[in-house]
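Reading is simple: each integer encodes one residue's backbone shape. An example follows:

___
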Amino acid sequence: MAEPTKSPKKRKAKPSLPVPEPDTTRRQEEEGRDVAEPLGETEDKPKKAYDIAIFTGWCKGCGICAAFCPRQCIEMGEDGQPLVTNADRCTGCGFCEIHCPDFAISVRVRKKAVGDED
């Protein structure tokens, strides 16, 4: 004799989730802005300056930092070590720092020197 089958329990309807914002890159392209430019920066605000520090003792020279930098601030030198060549173009995105497998890069907002009025 076959046993009676149980009917599946009905699930309660889950509340709908909010619709996510469109992709940041797509939004920047639609606005005609440089993709590597951070969204918060405008022409009215003074551009922040960033310091890129490379700890050569930790770096194995893989080149990931140079490959991920959207503004080409870092290039690989002839000795296979990364060099900061265009620090003034840095937007502080931190892609180089995030992707470095050796934690050998630090990107920080440049502190004003004593006497600077900017």
About this structure: The two ends are 88 Å apart (CA to CA). The chain is about 15% helix and 15% strand. The helical segments are 24-30, 64-68, 95-99. The beta strands are 50-54, 74-76, 82-84, 105-109.
